[in-house]
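Minimal example, chain plus 2-amino-3-ketobutyric acid.
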Amino acid sequence: CSIYTVYKSINLLHCRCIYKCNVLHKNVFYIIKLYLLTHRKRFGKNNVILSDIRKPPSNVFHSGPFIYSDILDYKNLREIVVNNRITWLVHYSALLSAVGEANVALARAVNITGLHNILDIAAEHGLRLFVPSTIGAFGPTSPRNPTPDLCVQRPRTIYGVSKVHAELMGEYYHHRYGLDFRCLRYPGIISADSQPGGGTTDYAVQIFHDAVKTGKFECNLKPDTRLPMMYIDDCLRATLEVMEAPAESLSMRTYNINAMSFTPEELAKEVQKQLPDLQVTYEIDSVRQAIADSWPMNFDDSNARNDWCWKHDYDLPELVQTMLNFIGSDSR
Ligand code: AKB
């Protein structure tokens, strides 16, 4: 579980952030790590504080302040917020979709009780709060092609249920207590420097590692499973942009964001343009397939594009090229 909090002065010149993560979920960890580094670059290294219940990798540890904190320990969270005069809080703690189904009790604790702690801390101390949601907040009865911001949301995973809960609770706190709650529904996020862990969209990260290392990839979703996806740099920029957007520009508090949509077959073909010898086989994981079949195929993010000028940089060809460059240079 991970939590990343940001402290910043009113004029944004000085900012301190606390960030806490569970390296069990490396994708989440990677997002936070990059987000942390991006924030440190932007607001100053000592103004961004990382926290976790585990030791972070040494490059992150040495990049600025780190403290221990447990998302389920309310008193500890409060102490951190007070002692460091935190003003922004970015809350990434969550078990992802597939791993959540394998451990519902833990997912419920981290994703729901953890969120309650964060909401109360943020409301009590007047923090600006970012909580990521996901395409997983939709379900089989939602319109899937495209999926708009406002529609039926009846997810069938504990992850999805906890994210709908987070969206609604954040919006409720906003209307009831004036909490500055901001939320983006992320598509599958693809990043280069970590192995995936626990998500349904993981195949779209794994393929690059396997393509470079072994030239073979066994996909756990059917070849025609279409899902919305985004490269990590776009995800980080979108998150910073919505956090910094003037409140008047936000017509809602929870936005879909998207970059592209593709199937495993389409992704494999694009990778094969660079690595023609890549062999792809399909061994379907029924849990992940059922989850993917209930999620959006195309994500309508027109409100984000209109309200705060969201625009993605990476489409499929740039994504593939960038991932292969990163992973290829790492393995040399
Ligand atoms: C998952 O697959 O569970 C996540 C997500 C789309 O939220 N990557």
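Confidence is low (pLDDT under 50) at residues 1-30. The pocket of 2-amino-3-ketobutyric acid is lined by residues 96-97, 134-136, 159, 188, 199-201 (CB under 6 Å).
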